[in-house]
Specification:
This protein has a domain of 72 residues: Homeodomain-like (Arc Repressor Mutant, subunit A). It is 44% helix and 7% strand. The chain contains 22 helices and nine strands. It has a five-stranded mixed beta sheet with strand order 2-4-3-6-7, covered by helices on one side.
Amino acid sequence: MTPQLQQAIRLLQLSTLDLQQEVQEALEANPMLERQEDGEDYDNNEVSESHTDAGINTPTETGNSQESLYEAPSHSEESFEEGDWSERIPNELPVDTAWEDIYQTSASNLPSNDDDEWDFTNRTSAGESLQTHLLWQLNVAPMTDTDRLIAVTLIDSINDRGYLENSLEEIHAGLDPDLDIELDEVEVVLRRIQQFEPAGVGARNLQECLLLQLRQLPSDTEWLAQAQQLVGNHLEALGNRDYNLLMRRMKLKEDELRAVVELIQTLNPRPGSQIETSEPEYVVPDVIVRKHNGRWLVELNQEAMPRLRVNAHYANLVRRADSSADNTFMRNQLQEARWFIKSLQSRNETLMKVATQIVEHQRGFLDYGDEAMKPLVLHDIAEAVGMHESTISRVTTQKYMHTPRGIYELKYFFSSHVSTSEGGECSSTAIRAIIKKLVAAESPKKPLSDSKIAGLLEEQGIQVARRTVAKYRESLGIAPSSERKRLI
């Protein structure tokens, strides 16, 4: 593989956010590169036309080899005046070599010299952890030094869900024997911690967690006493959805039991999840799909696509016959800059071809939703655009499409198929959508079993085994029928 092809493949599999970071590093490391500002005319390095009608056949690559996918189209005109530095970039560099073997510098190994704008916290800070949140409350709570030591040990034993992972006996055994701390003291400190926010933190099991949250509710809360009785004595029956047994034991009517259960459902069985421990991940769509005059249009997200060009002033400083170290460095930087721009152009062209073919295959989804999704595999798109399946896999990984129905990863549009009774095919995505629709419309008192769902699908001509229904149901995050039973 040539260095150009290696670079093009690497840029092709980067997400939009990673690509923007890569471009920023290249701009900082290579003086020959500069960003194209809004309102300025594109030069020869501009990406090709990025607005394509999905209803029109777009040109595809005709080459069969993967290398041909990254050959950038030639241009006969330059947007800046060419001087003695101008020379043709070779079509190919030696194979099986690294970029650093040809050029002296790389964007990845040169740090930014702008120390004034370097903000370490912005690049290393993460969301507040549960332990940090609890320690902050501990610092403002009045305690003796011994109790504070016990509290820090207890907080270290609380997991991300908010539960105490170790027993009090194990925590007590790990304390310094010279402090002569009794087990009762550890339990007293734990009760202090259990009064911290979020409510229910520091519990040893689910029952204690729910009871802690109920105790922190106002005393005049309706059905509070019954909810405490249910959680304290009949939690297992509630987990089994045995509502008839609960009504008999608690001597409640159906509507009264429903009110008690609704109060319990307002509680959080994982109180630690309320504290965000990681930075939010943002999704920037690479492709935008919209409908215009009854036709689906596909276009690149220009705001997310970096626009670069060669700096004409620095490029004109390169002299052909000069072999000095400075001139050699500038020549190498110029070569690297132009290949980087061509790799970006190749990435955008490939992304557009693949996205256009996906929209062409999945018009039913865009018009009618998940139930109209057609079966689609990588081979179908690879054959349509004349590329290798591995290339399609790279293009569809961590690339997103903005549609009127939401933002989806390109891989979402690929799914296997199931044969129908009429000899046709139905995609697994469409079957999942049908299962979700059936479950949403089921009777709460008598939810549909997997066998019943398989029978309903068979009535629609879709032959799916019960175990396949169970697999699709689990992938949708839908609980089994025994756990979906609830009061009306």
